[in-house]
Write a structure and sequence with these properties.
Elements lengths: L3 E7 L7 E7 L3 E6 L4 E5 L3 E5 L7 E5 L5 E5 L3 H9 L11 H36 L5 H15 L9 H15 L10 E5 L6 E4 L3 E5 H6 L3 H16 L2 H9 L2 H9 L2 H6 L1 H9 L5 H17 L5 H12 L9 H5 L4 H11 L15 H4 L4
Parallel strand pairs: 8-10
Antiparallel strand pairs: 1-2, 1-7, 2-3, 3-4, 5-6, 6-7, 9-10
Length: 364
């Protein structure tokens, strides 16, 4: 076992370093300087101030405010010190513990990552599900208005009066059987070729011109509206926004800060553009949307044929059929819609019987 080491001694009064031979003894550390001085540092008067990490120089100090110091570059010095004076192990760092500390640090980091993933996977969705039904209606409507300013500013809207009246008539027919609703539902048609529609907080539904033109009948358009209306009424859109947007939006929702809702309009609009609902939410919107169609005596076949038509167009240019990316239309889902539609009930009414739908949907 090595007991003699090379180092430097600082007397605490000057900045000059003196080379020194450091000898480990049972009673303390013997220091012999190049100037010819030899003295003993008892272990109980010595403290370690550096050398706790790999590659760091070991520094030992003795004394009060103006302390003497020893500098030893070789970290093995500490290992030898523990072997010479094992009863002093608590006063000095043991390099053998570094590996354990690294392993514990890695384990702690993995634990933090695991906890973060668990919060993201389960904690945030659970919190969003708890908060969404408790968000004040006024707060959600203010957020929705702010989102609409981003998604559908007036200059981008289709303002044709005949088209506007037809869309409102379809929505009125769908919602007439509802006993009550927390929001004033509104449909805004945007002059854009995207084949897409989306629910917005506070009762707004945005329909893009591309989707309107793909709806071959008013009943197909009504099927899309019924699905989106249910996303609003079931507050799926609010829950999904709280889950996918920043924690800031979640905080202002919890506090009911109406002015704060306006500040998150742009963020919420961007989130809605790529938002995907959970499978449970999509199935509930399908189920309740189908019930809405049956209650309004609108032929539910329209919802199914619209989905089938989009599915046949899946080979269109990327990004064109945005409705498929946010509302997945698989064969299983279409079969489920057929099951939900069930056997024909009361005779269906014809939507917009006095209008030319083909001409109307081109008026935007």
């Amino acid at each position: 076992m090595q007991t003699d080491w090379e180092g430097f001694y600082l007397d605490g009064r000057t900045a000059a370093r003196q080379r020194a031979r450091v000898r480990l003894m049972r009673s303390g550390i013997e220091v012999s300087t190049e100037g010819g001085l030899t003295f003993l540092w008892p272990y109980d008067q010595v403290r370690q101030t550096q050398g706790f990490y790999a590659g760091e120089q070991v520094r030992l100090e003795k004394g009060g405010e103006i302390a003497e110091a020893l500098l030893i570059s070789d970290a093995a010095f500490l290992t030898a010190l523990h072997e010479v004076a094992p009863e002093r192990r608590t006063r000095f760092h043991d390099p053998a513990r570094r590996r354990t500390r690294v392993e514990l640090t890695l384990l702690a980091a993995l634990a933090v990552i695991g906890i973060a993933l668990a919060i993201y996977q389960w904690g945030i969705p659970l919190l969003a599900a708890f908060v969404a039904p408790r968000v004040p209606i006024a707060w959600e409507e203010r957020l929705g208005s702010s989102v609409i300013e981003q998604l559908a500013p007036p200059k981008k809207r289709c303002e044709d009066q005949e088209l506007r009246a037809a869309v409102d008539d379809v929505l009125k027919t769908l919602t007439a059987p509802l006993p009550s609703r927390p929001f004033t539902l509104r449909v805004i048609v945007v002059n854009d070729s995207l084949v897409n529609a989306m629910a917005v907080p506070g009762g707004h539904i945005v329909v893009f011109r591309g989707l309107l033109k793909r709806a071959r009948t008013p009943e197909e358009f009504a099927g899309v509206l019924a699905h989106e209306v249910q996303h609003v009424l079931q507050r799926h859109v609010m829950r999904a926004l709280l889950q996918h947007a920043s924690t800031g939006l979640l905080v202002v929702a919890l506090t009911g800060d109406v002015s704060g809702a306006m500040a998150y309009g742009l963020e919420a609009a961007r989130t809605l553009g790529t938002l995907q609902y959970s499978r449970v939410a999509e199935e509930e919107a399908d189920r309740e949307g189908m019930r809405m169609l049956r209650a309004a005596r609108v032929d539910p076949e329209g919802m199914i044929t619209f989905m089938e038509g989009l599915r046949r167009k899946e080979g269109d240019p990327a990004g064109f059929l945005r409705y498929l990316s946010t509302h997945p239309t698989t064969a299983d889902r279409i079969e489920r819609l057929r099951s939900l539609a069930g056997a024909p009930g009361r005779p269906s009414i014809k939507l917009l019987p006095d209008s030319d739908w083909t001409a109307l949907r081109e008026r935007c």
